Structures are given as structure tokens and as C-alpha cells.
Amino acid sequence: DQQVKQNSPSLSVQEGRISILNCDYTNSMFDYFLWYKKYPAEGPTFLISISSIKDKNEDGRFTVFLNKSAKHLSLHIVPSQPGDSAVYFCAAAYSGGSNYKLTFGKGTLLTVNP
Amino acid sequence: GAGVSQSPRYKVAKRGQDVALRCDPISGHVSLFWYQQALGQGPEFLTYFQNEAQLDKSGLPSDRFFAERPEGSVSTLKIQRTQQEDSAVYLCASSQHPTGGRETQYFGPGTRLLVL
Fold it and tell me: Considering chain B, what percentage of its residues have pLDDT values greater than 90?
């Protein structure tokens, strides 16, 4: 049972345009969400996070939006650059007993075309 | 400073063979995690150490999987009598403090295990 879902396995955008990556979750206990970026043959690297008390967090070209009622979050990359081409994983955590445990989605492969 | 390193990077094992995967976390990091990433899937939690104490091993798939971190730094994930379904990338991550998921986890490059 996938508690964190990334329903788009891949996304292709033109350089300079906006990339929007989506993530849905089913466990209402989750209260902290993260995005990780992964290049081939490397481990995932932390990109940006958001707490459930917020609905938006911005860091440079990256913005994460959280819609708690819909159990949905999205990552916006503006403007997209070829170096952003990677697999993006959405992950979730909660403040309960096992709060160190991250639950990941399957990832979305983003390709930014020059 | 060095990041998280893992060795070997690639391992081919015959079914039934035992394997040992090593993780060197970032120096001074208290927390250490192991994840398993099957092909086309996201990383899945296996186990968690705080210093040398294994506080959670709920994600280990079977009793063939064993992890240790005897001195609170380097960790080894051992898989006994490997099966084909054990083929995956095994990721190690560390974080500075013994706090929750809000603490950034730094991942190593992973060990890709192929069981024939």
C-alpha cells in the first residue's frame, strides 16, 4: 500500500519553462514533507521541505506547495534548467514515535530539454 | 568534508551466498539509516541506528538481514543466503542529530546488489 504516490513516472519540459511535479499521500499522520533529487549513480540529495503548518515554502527557483485537505503537494521549478534533469522523490515523515522514518514515493524522472 | 561513502559500489552474488555492505557516514553524525531501493521504486526504510544502538529494525525484510554499527560510526548491512528478490540498491544515510524526519538525511551513492 503506497502511502506516498507520485503518479507521473516522467515529465519533460523545455528549458526556461516551469516544471511541476506532483505528489499525493494517504496517511493523515504525515506532517512533514520533503523533496529529494537523484542523479544516476548517486544517492538522493535533499532539495526542499515543508511543514504541515505551512502551505508554501520557497527556496530560489524551487517552491513546494502543500494542500492538506487534498493530501497533495507539488514542487515547482522556475525557470527549469537542463541541470535539473534528474529523478525527484517526494518523501513524508510524521511527529509520532517513528519520526525519523521517511516514506518515499516512486519518483518522477524530469527531463529538461535545451 | 567527505560525504557518506558506501562500498562496494557494485556486488554480484550467487544465490545462497552471504554479502556484507559497508557504510561510512559523515563524521560525527549520530543517526544512520539503511534503505532498500528496488528497480523503479523509491527507497524503503530498513533500519535505524542512533550511535551504536539499533533503535528500529522494523523494515528488515527477513531474518536473513542483519545490520550493525558497533562503535557508532561505520555500519555494515549483512545479507545471509541471498535470494534473487534481494537484488536492489542499498542506500545508507546519516544525519547529524537524533531527531526526526525533519533532520536532513545525507545519502551515500548506494551499493547495487545483483543476485544471480
Answer: 91
